[in-house]
Amino acid sequence: MARIIGLTGGIASGKSTISTMLHEKGYTIIDADLAARMVVEVGQPAYLAIVEEFGEDILHENDSTINREKLGGIIFNSEEKRKVLNSIVHPAVRSMMLQHKDEAIASGKNTIFMDVPLLFESDLTWMVERTLVIYVNEETQLSRLIERNHLNRQDAEARIASQFPLKDKVNLADAVIDNNGTISETKEQLEALLTEWDLQP
């Protein structure tokens, strides 16, 4: 029976570093952000529903892909429109992730990591058996985000504030990896957890 583990964290907490480590060890990672990009590709059902709802003005003229900035401008200013968009995209993302999970199980994978940034916020813990949170303290998170995204402190703080606080996610998690230290310290914690939970790729 395959084990399904939910991997989550906050912006700039180092979740993608952990994903890369797991991938290198041969584990299957199903990435919600990647699925979210795939479901809105030209011709996909979610894409068609978005165009029908928001009009062709939100498309790039040259290739008919969705202009994220234009769409973002619409939903940023309207809670109602954002809910409409989420009601189209979220079910499509969940459906694609579950499909990829079934394919991985069918191909004989023992452990599947579901990489879902909003695992707790979107009440998606039903999709997984256990949850793993990648944690950093607020100051580390802020400085990494400023450096990675070339943001000023105010913009970086606003992005972090828009998410569920990492320390609250820690309280909900089955396990936590503290990513405040060095890469090798993080790797050691991951190795220990894979052994403790007896997770094979």
UniProtKB/TrEMBL annotation:
<keyword id="KW-0808">Transferase</keyword>
<keyword id="KW-0418">Kinase</keyword>
<protein>
    <submittedName>
        <fullName>Dephospho-CoA kinase</fullName>
        <ecNumber>2.7.1.24</ecNumber>
    </submittedName>
</protein>
